[in-house]
Amino acid sequence: MEDVPWWGVVSSVSAPVLLVAGFTVAASLQPDFDQISGTVSSLAAVGATDRWVMTLTFVVVGVCYLATALALRPAGTAGRLILAAGAATGMLVAAHPVSADNPFPVQHMLWAGLGFAGLTFWPAGACRRGASVPWTLRPAVAATALAILLALMAWFVAELITAAGQVGLAERVVGTAQALWPLAVVLSCRRTALRPATSPATSAPVAPAQR
Prior knowledge:
Layout: H1 6-29, H2 40-43, H3 52-71, H4 77-91, H5 106-126, H6 139-162, H7 167-194
Helix pairs in contact: 1-3, 1-7, 3-4, 4-5, 5-6, 6-7
């Protein structure tokens, strides 16, 4: 089983840390901003205070996802491509911010939707079969991760549609979960690669030679 290079570990750790730090700092710079109801996109909106903080966060976290996708050699190729595509389209969100005049621009919604989809569905294409496959890449575990991410995504979409007042919380929870799963996969791959090979079963003791 191929190992994940050190820079893949760095990128996978950096993504959730930078994401949470980014939207927390950006929110603290906004006057009277409610992180429960306020979206991450609004932190990078035209006219927002220091909108560059969240804009830069989108880009840097996307770069981390791309590096992680490249480093995840033990994962299935399809999953790595989906993760990379999700990262790339998610980065384009920064180039098409929302504004007070247009809170739901088509391009912003398109790239955000594709980014969320890629970061949600990539476990389905990353799973592999075999005794030596890291546990996070096994079909049953990958299916469980996909189900959890889909459930969180459904909550976020429901909040968007119903305007129930917790869309910001839902978005942060699903985004953080999406950032943590690549980290879990990388760590499990590293652990599997570093584990010493299992020695064959000890053979029965040989009787001493007769004199």
